[in-house]
From TrEMBL:
Its cofactor is pyridoxal 5'-phosphate. The keyword Lyase applies. It comes from Agrilactobacillus yilanensis. Keywords: Lyase, Pyridoxal phosphate. One of its GO terms (molecular function) is cysteine-S-conjugate beta-lyase activity. Its EC number is 4.4.1.13. CDD domains: AAT_like (cd00609). PANTHER family: PROTEIN MALY. It is an enzyme of class 4 (lyase). This is cysteine-S-conjugate beta-lyase. The lineage of its organism: Bacteria, Bacillati, Bacillota, Bacilli, Lactobacillales. It holds the Pfam family Aminotran_1_2.
């Protein structure tokens, strides 16, 4: 049985926050979203942990100035961001590449509007984070999916179907998720190179959402599309990142758009001012700069807690309900679980909410065919994860009696 180390237990004790009645979407929107305010929430992807102390201190110092007028990007921001990318992922950024937005989802919408016209086809790999589809459909474009292939507890890309789809010549844009939410894959460099080579061959713009890049679990290492084949495809791609998942900063609305190619940058700059003038998020950038400079030890402990939560969850299911499939978690802090052997799709919501008392993300939100899956957020108190898993196991066993 896996055990939580003293160091990680101390991290949990020092950083855990009760977020109920704090206007937290995850906890205080349960009645609105699920019709039951008393569910245990493991859905939306944020955390119950305080951001690093250095981030809190930097924000307090800035707030004490008392003025929040139009602001410049804080001195040293790029150096802090680029230093983190270089140390954690061996990515060598150039300052000219960097643009800002108020969130990766905002940028997904902008990318669809920028790269395509109404009625155009945009490619995704389902199951995938559902705002990918919203960004396409809300802009009047067509979703085309090359569905991932489920090989037990591991998901892979169907490259034959991918090439067939791209070769038809109708796809204008490929929204790519790396690491992949919800299936938890960190794509290998070989997989990434196949994807990028096909996009180059068929003249498809690839936008890579790398917001979960820092969550490297169980020995897996993330490779950015910027680094594939020693940077061979840099000028082909646009990369979206943010500090929000890594350091629990989502509401501070600060994200990055990385465009290595000068012509694409100019085209983006010309486009983006036609839909909105993006002012910088002052506090978001103050927080991110401090996090990149001083948050590494905090983050490494967080990874330890997520790893523990995943290992204890997987062990519990293997021991008590081995027929349930838990996807191999390589990246993200989200566990994708198939309850199909025990729970029918039409009974899933009743089972999860009414019998287990849980609020989760349902697989059907990520792909219509994944209607027996649930996604659980593991960036939380181990006690919450254990309670949720025990409720699921108890009710799953009752199902089979």
């Amino acid at each position: 049985m896996v055990e939580l180390s003293n160091t990680l237990q101390q991290f949990v004790t020092e950083n855990l926050v009760d977020r109920k009645h704090t206007a937290a979407l995850k906890w205080d929107a349960l009645q609105e979203r699920y019709g039951n305010a008393d569910l245990l929430p493991l859905w939306v992807a944020d955390m119950e942990f305080k951001t690093p102390k250095a981030v809190q201190d930097a924000l307090i110092q800035r707030v004490e100035q008392g003025v929040f007028g139009y602001s410049l990007i804080p001195d040293g921001y790029f150096e802090a961001f680029a230093g983190w990318q270089a140390k954690r992922h061996h990515i060598q950024l150039e300052k000219d590449w960097l643009r800002f937005d108020h969130g990766v989802v905002n940028s997904l919408y902008a990318m669809v509007h920028w790269c395509t016209k109404p009625g155009d086809q945009v490619l995704v790999l389902q199951p995938v984070y559902y705002p990918f589809m919203s960004a396409i459909e809300d802009n009047g474009r067509q979703v085309v999916s090359v569905d991932l292939v489920n090989q037990g507890d591991r998901w892979t890309i169907d490259f034959d179907r991918l090439e067939t789809t791209l070769a038809q010549g109708q796809i204008k844009l490929f929204l790519f998720c790396s690491p992949h939410n919800p299936v938890g894959r960190i794509w290998t460099e070989a997989e990434l190179e196949k994807v990028l080579a096909l996009c180059r061959q068929y003249h498809v713009q690839l936008v890579s959402d790398e917001i979960h890049q820092d969550f490297e679990l169980n020995g897996h290492k993330f490779t950015s599309v910027l680094n594939v084949a020693k940077g061979r495809y840099q000028n082909d791609v646009v990369v979206l990142t943010a500090p929000s998942k890594t350091f629990n900063l989502a509401s501070l609305a600060n994200s990055h758009v990385l465009i290595p190619d000068a012509d694409k940058r100019q085209a983006y700059d010309d486009f983006i001012k036609t839909i909105h003038a993006t002012e910088n998020s002052l506090l978001g950038q103050v927080a991110a700069k401090a996090a990149y400079q001083h948050g590494e030890a905090w983050f490494d402990n967080l990874l330890g807690v997520i790893t523990y939560n995943y290992q204890s969850l997987k062990e519990a299911f293997q021991t008590n309900c081995p027929e349930i499939t838990v996807a191999d978690l390589q990246g993200t802090y989200l566990s994708y679980i198939n309850l199909a052997p025990v729970v029918n799709a039409d009974a899933l919501e009743d089972f999860v909410q009414n019998r287990c008392g849980l609020a989760v993300d349902y697989g059907a939100w990520f792909a219509p065919k994944d209607n027996t899956y649930i996604r659980l957020n593991l960036a939380t108190d181990p006690a919450i994860v254990k309670t949720a898993v025990q409720r699921l196991i108890t009710e799953l066993k009752n199902q089979t009696k």
